[in-house]
Fold this sequence. Notes:
Domain Aminoacyl-transfer RNA synthetases class-II family profile (chains A, B): 1-356
Pfam family, one (chains A, B): HGTP_anticodon
Subunit structure (chains A, B): Homodimer.
Largest interface: A-B, 104 and 104 residues
Strand content of chain A: 15-25%
CATH topology of the largest domain in chain A: BirA Bifunctional Protein, domain 2
Oligomer: homodimer
Keywords (chains A, B): Aminoacyl-tRNA synthetase, ATP-binding, Cytoplasm, Ligase, Nucleotide-binding, Protein biosynthesis
CATH superfamily of the largest domain in chain A: Bira Bifunctional Protein, Domain 2
Radius of gyration of chain A: 29 Å
CATH architecture of the largest domain in chain A: 2-Layer Sandwich
Catalytic activity (chains A, B): tRNA(His) + L-histidine + ATP = L-histidyl-tRNA(His) + AMP + diphosphate + H(+)
Amino acid sequence: MKPSLPQGTRDFSADIIRRRRFILDTIKDVFELYGFEPLETPALENLETLMGKYGDEGDKLIFKILNNGLDNPLKKEEIQKGFNKILEGKNEKNITERALRYDLTIPFARYVSMNYGKLTMPYKRYQMQSVWRADRPQKGRYREFYQCDADVAGTNSLISDAELALIYQQVFRRLKIDVDIKINSRKILAALAEVCGGSDKMSAITVAIDKLDKIGIEKVKEELIENNLSVQQISVIESYLQIGGSNDEKLTKITTLLNNVETGQKGIEELKIILNYINEVAGQSSTSSINIDFTLARGLNYYTGIIYEVKAKNIEMGSIGGGGRYDDLTGLFGLPNIPGVGISFGVDRIYDVMTELNIFPEDINKSTTVLFFNLGEKESTVAFKEMQVLRNNGISCELFYENAKLDKQFKYASKKNIPFAIIIGSNEVEQKTCIVRDLLKAEQQTIPVDNLSSYFR
Amino acid sequence: MKPSLPQGTRDFSADIIRRRRFILDTIKDVFELYGFEPLETPALENLETLMGKYGDEGDKLIFKILNNGLDNPLKKEEIQKGFNKILEGKNEKNITERALRYDLTIPFARYVSMNYGKLTMPYKRYQMQSVWRADRPQKGRYREFYQCDADVAGTNSLISDAELALIYQQVFRRLKIDVDIKINSRKILAALAEVCGGSDKMSAITVAIDKLDKIGIEKVKEELIENNLSVQQISVIESYLQIGGSNDEKLTKITTLLNNVETGQKGIEELKIILNYINEVAGQSSTSSINIDFTLARGLNYYTGIIYEVKAKNIEMGSIGGGGRYDDLTGLFGLPNIPGVGISFGVDRIYDVMTELNIFPEDINKSTTVLFFNLGEKESTVAFKEMQVLRNNGISCELFYENAKLDKQFKYASKKNIPFAIIIGSNEVEQKTCIVRDLLKAEQQTIPVDNLSSYFR
């Protein structure tokens, strides 16, 4: 049997893991610097926890687990009925009652609902775990991939919104990726809809604006016409989309455009407060700009306030982060009135950006520090002992397992990126010395074995 | 809807994650010190990769994924036939072709088989990931849990066997758990079987010996009688099980007992070589003893050479580690003659042992270092700015999100184990000072805000 991997899944070898860890550890460190606590939820959730939360399309992409014991003859009739329901596209507890995590937000909402009394509110949690989606695999899209979220639940304070933008700044500064952090407010989009035909047009307008990047303004206008917006309404949307200038100039223009709409003024006021907080600490920290972008819409999701999106500069790549504020995290699970705000990092895309820009730290592929060569039984027993002294001093070492040709041992060191070789032959055993070879510089020296630890410290 | 978790799964809150990370990071650091490289494989494997690898009982415990699109009317007939096969306890590609990782060994073997040409051999990998088993949940047994393995593939060198015992020593020394590391050889058990009725009795003898701890010598003897061993043969096994003394004494006694059996002498020779390596570095490192234990059998699995098992001293708990050498890692996947040796850590049990012995580091639940109190809009804007200075210096901070009663803010700090509060009221704003309160000592002092970073460094 020739083994293979399921479509859309990946093995991660050591060199990839080291790069991914660099990204994940950076994000984790910044989350913790801002007072976020880790949470981990199981990969398995009850199917009913997930169903109906991601729209009809999402429901179809959930991986469901087959119940065990379906060959139980005592239950044959029930199970057969269950299979018939599955054939009709329905779910059936007798066949499947568990599913794989599809995102980190619904498990977070479930967790908050189940543990509300015990949690310290406002609850600031981060979560970095795999999710699974039965999407058609394609370049950059996998069926098993990591998500990386931070959310604050239980406060309307805009301090948390401002902090999340700063987290984006700090993470990408540490990763050395120049980014454009875009910010807008769903309240402003709601106000625009009110001006242009009423709030029932909000979803059509949002969806159309969301496509601006991909299809251009003319196609967006066509789509709006199809949605029965008048020429005059579309011209308001066009002038909205054309608002430019500095953040302050944009705020002045949008205030005029949405002059009489209360929701809009509220959204503008919130944007101002958030940008004030950010400006307070500007210059202290970053070159990454935080820019109002009224064309930002964030598709069809549950956001109700501020929204974010992050793009890398100087490279063609979709967004590498996104998020926003939502009114009601846990209502679906019976706990009303918990607002929240959160952001997400696209780890796979960040990895691709950093690979393409070649900005991973140079020593990222450092593995073992020292390879002791194996020159025979007696010599390797001495090497084994010296190796353990180094390990006790925190220096990672290996002893080549067999008394192979030197050639082969050098090749092993080279393939594993091991920078130092230590050679203990019969002469060295006798004289209590060893040869330390710097494999990168191709230099070597003989030193007393007793000096080995201090050599590497 | 009141949400719940699937049976046998767990959410991990921050305090549990910090403890688990302490264990996992310790193990990871030691693995890397010994030159092992990380590997991560997907949770989803092709069902055919897993089936038939874990015995009939194991097969039943594999979680299978329902294919998507089972409501496709064009495929109705095929799918219906598929369901009929499932009812008969067979697998059917039309219904399920993927499954959840059941252990880390088979994915490792699959990975080595698929990537053999590219790997640096001998390949030393470690892997720390979740696995899933549809076992009946009970105390300490979960359906989703972590495994933590290190294996060396592609060498018969006993240096690797010796190193794995040293890894056990070093990990448990770092975790401050006193352990008994037991060692035996399957070759010795094979020789015992040869002496007592031939090699076809090996599995019966191994299974019976494996139960000695739980059922006692008399029941073991009964089981051997049921397996048609003669009184004389059973008396040999009994004297085998009673071998005591130091490692050296045990080796002398077993040499006599298995005098004429070649496999046995080979096993004894290997044990001696491994213990020699270990003795070379003894005293350098550890109080944890590595002891020959001829009653160690490791149940019905694929080991063929050295076997290990680790138990914590001074506490009632099953084994917290185990492993051994096997002849053929990848034969099942078409790549013959790759020997291997590996060990595994039982993370959940190690967690329980450390909790019961109360030996986690005292500061393990340290979260944010500083909470800035919120005393109003103007004050909190100043606090926000100072907080960012601290964060830029690597000190984790939070600003309480609302201008709530001090009482509530103190309570938040206490519930989150935050050791310091910084209070900036209108006086402090004016005088450019702040009050730093050590919440553990209940002491406070007023310092210039400009000195804050150096205060915490």
